[in-house]
Amino acid sequence: MADNTDIIKKNSIVLHLFTSRMQLRHDGREYVGLCIFHSEKTGSFKVYQNSDGTFLYKCHGCGVSGNIFQFIMKTDGVQFPEAKRRVEEFIKNSF
Q: Which of 24, 65, 76, 95 could be 33's S-S partner, Cβ–Cβ 3.0 to 4.6 Å?
């Protein structure tokens, strides 16, 4: 089976995975909210699509950043294979 990680990172359903884990509001081309990785009063956490279509996150307060797999690895404390499985399961259950 071919590796589908690039396809998954570009799937708009991953945006719903972010919003299922935290509150984000739409702000232009980005989604903004309070970072779940540090305490803050002003939302510095952003989810956006880069130029190749990959959904990424970045907190301008604490500096964490990455793709959906790295987000799940950090929030759930799991390694990549399990994070990938969880993202795939979320996508599968979204249909």
A: 24
